[in-house]
Design a protein that fits this description.
TIM Barrel, nine-stranded mixed β-sheet, alpha/beta, 2 domains
Length: 471
């Protein structure tokens, strides 16, 4: 190229839109490694009609480099929540878990082979289609009685996505939440969310620095003892075993109540029992205000069931009803197949949050049409997707919460950090401390404000390390 042509080329390049030029902050994947950890719960947890007593964690390491040649290793971890993400009445636990493990092997290969540079949100945008195609391949290869749901595929891929975000932040020498700016991710949100978001950018919807502290939502599982009389045999490991004991131990102010959705009287009485225990315990601590969330895990037969249950709770305890902050997805997750389950009337009483159904923007739009007024963000659906859904939900002025899929260790840090960096999210779940504390033990000294809770809050202000901040 002669000097004149070279000057012309460089001049044209300088005038080209910034998004069309290579971003020096981009990264690419150089290699991927995975390993698994398995734990038995100290006590079982019941949700969605199933009792669960174990967990398998998928840990992922992604080796990545930037355009300048610098290399780092990013880390992501997530429970393979097959009972939640891949519920089945015909397949055994080992079959659904095995299908997700088979998908993880394919996702590892797909991610390791991807060689384009980009921001992790952009990389996820390109890779997700391949990951979902791999799930369809697993269905065929294993001749699964029920095909793997998209939700299960997202859960399986989420630690790979997390590891890429972690690596990117480390390459930039900062918390990854400082790396969702126009400098790092040049594309506007319309690329990912459509024309309605033209001119919008992700940085508008993400906090660079975490909220200093956030209330902890404690889970009251459907088989958890509330009072001493509910205990048949104590675990005897030194941790609390009744709800009043947990309230005292952690200084709780937020309680998430798991309900069954198949027995209105039982669900009503369960809420009233929790309210009774809290009302007996909270004032002794000087707590004047506390909150509940109700989680049916999509088991209510219809919205009338929900409305009748709420009416009866209010009739028997007006104060208890007032303490309900929001309601998580009460009816079936297949919104298209159950368009009759509209939430407009229920949402006038309390925010009704889409959870299991939320797998993409289309599902969020449909939920809004059906009267849902809130969205549950989960790190286990992918960091990139959680941020994009958070942006859409904020623009549409929806109620937001973050839930954790009983995440221990690094996955809890990831989930808590997501909650702490999304405007509008008011509390954090951390169920592993109840059901799988052994998996948290190695993390307690490094993050005491996250894993040791005494005043009902997590000290999320410490979540400022490079990448996702766990390792």
């Amino acid at each position: 190229m002669n000097n004149v042509n070279r000057r012309s080329f460089l001049g044209a390049l300088a005038l080209a839109p910034q998004a069309l030029r290579a971003n020096p902050l981009d990264m690419r994947v150089e290699g991927v490694e995975t390993e698994e950890e398995s734990y038995v719960y100290r006590t079982p947890i019941k949700f969605g009609g199933t009792v669960l007593d174990r967990v398998t964690l998928l840990n992922v390491k992604v080796r990545a480099r930037n355009r300048g040649g610098q290399q780092v290793t990013g880390f992501g971890s997530m429970p393979l929540g097959n009972v939640w993400g891949y519920p089945s009445k015909t397949m055994k636990y080992e079959q659904t878990l095995g299908a997700m493990q088979a998908l993880a092997r394919k996702v590892r290969a797909i991610t390791a082979d991807y060689r384009d540079y980009g921001h992790p949100v952009e990389l996820n945008y390109h890779l997700e289609e391949q990951w979902l195609k791999a799930a369809a391949e697993v269905n065929a290869e294993l001749k699964l009685a029920e095909p793997m749901p998209k939700l299960a595929a997202l859960v399986t891929a989420s630690p790979f996505d997390a590891a890429m975000h972690d690596a990117y932040g480390k390459l930039c020498g900062a918390s990854v939440y400082h790396c969702y700016t126009r400098e790092h991710l040049r594309e506007n949100l319309d690329r990912y969310l459509g024309d309605e978001f033209k001119g919008d950018h992700l940085e508008r919807y993400v906090l660079k620095d975490p909220k200093p502290r956030m209330p902890l939502y404690h889970l009251v599982g459907a088989v958890d003892p509330i009072f001493e009389s509910d205990i048949q045999k104590r675990v005897g490991d030194g941790l609390p075993e009744t709800l009043p004991e947990w309230i005292e131990y952690n200084g709780l102010t937020h309680l998430k109540i798991k309900l069954n959705g198949d027995n209105l009287n039982w669900d009503r009485d369960r809420v009233l029992a929790v309210d009774r225990a809290a009302s007996q315990t909270m004032p002794k601590r000087g707590t004047q205000q506390w909150f509940y969330s109700l989680d049916f895990n999509e088991k209510c037969p219809n919205v009338k069931y929900l409305l009748d249950m709420l009416k009866q709770v209010k009739e028997k305890s007006a104060a208890g009803f007032e303490r309900i902050q929001y309601i998580e997805q009460p009816t079936a997750r297949d919104l298209k197949a159950h368009r009759e389950n509209v939430m407009h009337q229920a949402s006038k009483l309390r925010p009704v949050v889409i959870d299991e159904s939320l797998t993409d923007l289309e599902s969020l739009r449909l939920a809004r049409e059906m009267g849902y007024t809130g969205a549950a963000l989960k790190a286990c659906k992918g960091q990139a997707q959680a941020l994009l859904m958070a942006a859409a939900a904020q623009k549409w002025r929806m109620f937001l919460c973050v839930q954790d899929l009983t995440c221990p260790g690094a996955s809890l840090i990831h989930s808590a950090s997501l909650a702490a960096h999304v405007p509008g999210v008011a509390a954090i779940e951390a169920n592993a401390r109840q059901y799988c504390p052994v998996a948290n033990k190695p993390w307690e000294k490094k993050f005491p404000g996250i894993f040791v809770v005494k005043d009902g809050t997590m000290q999320t202000g410490v979540l400022t390390g490079p990448g996702l901040g766990a390792v």
